[in-house]
Amino acid sequence: MRLSEQQFDVRLLAGGKPVLESLVRALDLESSQGEAPLRFVVTASDGQHYRCEIGVQTGGARMPASIFDFVPRSHESVDSFNAVMLVPTGIGAEIGGHAGDATPAAKLLASVCDALITHPNVLNASDIISIPHNALYVEGSVISRLLMGTVGLRKVRNNRVLVAVQDHKEEMFTNSAINAVNAARASYGLVCPRVIRLDQGFEMGSLYTASGRASGEVRGMDGLLAALERYRPDYDAVAISSIITVPESYHRDYFASAGAMINPWGGVEALLTHALSSSYNVPTAHSPMLESQDIANMDVGVVDPRMAAEVVSLTFFLSVLRGLQQSPAIVDAPVEMREPGVLTARDISCLVIPDGCIGLPTLAALEQGIPVIAVRENRNLMQNDLSALPWSSGQLHFAENYWEAAGVLAALKTGIAPRSARRPFTSVETENAEGRGPLATRELATRLATF
To answer: How far is CA 83 from CA 139, 349, 406, 419, 440, in A?
Structure first.
């Protein structure tokens, strides 16, 4: 079983089928047997041409269901106001592209929601984590499936977290990861049935795609997959700590870049967790091991605040363990998805994303009629004009920053048009009954007076 990245260029005909359906049809022409898409992102588009990058699983005893399966919701439930906050991994986001630096924004958005569904890239700060009390920590591919309508989320009191730790050639790092597990058991009250030690044949390597996104390849997964099969009745979530191979210079270059260099580790982590969450239907998260004692001892000085959590951490594992402790269960049986307390696509009131991001969550929200808030201040690599998509009236909102996004969320929760709280405030458009264009105010008044 191998995880890797592929690129496709797709052209859609104007006025054709919905964008999601058209993309799926076009991509089916390119797909080959024995491969299963795991991640999907549109890195650049102009309304008709879409440059797509897709993370792919090749081989494996378990092939996940298609990430493109879509079940439309019939309506939005208004019993509660639940928002999804996403900051895609590996795109160089100004906020959320480093170590948990989107957490303050997440807390702000959570304060105006009944529940905020978000993912490890937003909240994980290496060995530090601060989860809003009403947030659900959900692996990214599961959020995509939630919005696509194919799974639901059920809150849990706690999870039994199976831990897989790679055998490091320097025993100190393996011991540190196991110590982190015991620290979580003692301080978080984590339930961990066992720790599996992976041999050094398990390989994760980082690379950058043609668009500049961070991604990578994963090989040698047989031992991990065998353990997941063997112990399947004994766990509810999976935490993995392993080496991600990058050029040694990346460590110093990354911290010296003051945020300009895209974090090279997160993209390949997302490939791995997408594959495992999709195949086993369990919450999954990963943390990288440092490659050597020399790297651990490297003095990088005082770094950009967004990176500081990485510098002060050793295992990067405690945030993963805490997040998975109460990550909601994944429900995919239609009968169970209708049970009380299961959160599904109809319970999602809004999606908040960095401006320019088009992936399955954005396309699913477009088709489901879910309002989307695009935050302009969260600049990133993606080259897409979101306004070019065929949104319904009032479905897409642009916010300059997360302060403003919180205000838009509050307006949507209240049930008012967000624009009504701003000035200037223009008159409603009018047109004649035959739809031949707008009527001038004086002409409209004359017609009404003579009716």
So the answer is: 15, 6, 11, 19, 40
Say if CB 106 and CB 132 are below 8 A apart. yes
* Sign of the dihedral through C-alpha 210, 216, 222, 227: negative
Phi, psi for 257 (deg, rounded to 5): -75, -10
The sign of the dihedral angle between the CA atoms of 165, 166, 167, 170 is: negative
Eight-state DSSP code of residue 265 = S
First-last CA distance in the chain: 74
Structure tokens at 269: 């982590």
Reported in sequence order, the residue ranges of 249-383 that DSSP labels E, i.e. its strands, are: 284-289, 329-331, 342-343, 348-354, 358-359, 372-375
How many residues in the chain?
A: 451
Q: Domain ranges in the chain?
A: 2-58, 62-422
389: tokens are 């998509």
Q: Is 410 exposed, middle or buried (0-12, 13-18, 19+ CB in 10 A)?
A: middle
Name residue, tokens 């239609």. Answer: 334
Interacting residues of 336 by C-beta distance below 8 A, sequence separation 6+: 152, 154, 342
Whole-angstrom distance, CA of residue 255 vs CA of residue 157: 38
**Per-residue pLDDT tens for 27-73?**
774 455 678 999 999 999 987 899 999 999 998 888 888 999 999 99
Percent helix, strand and coil across the chain, each to the nearest 5: 35, 25, 45
Do residues 430 and 439 touch, judged by C-beta distance below 8 A? yes
Tokens at 30, concatenated: 């390119």
- What secondary structure letter does DSSP report for 321? H
**pLDDT for the residue 215:** 97
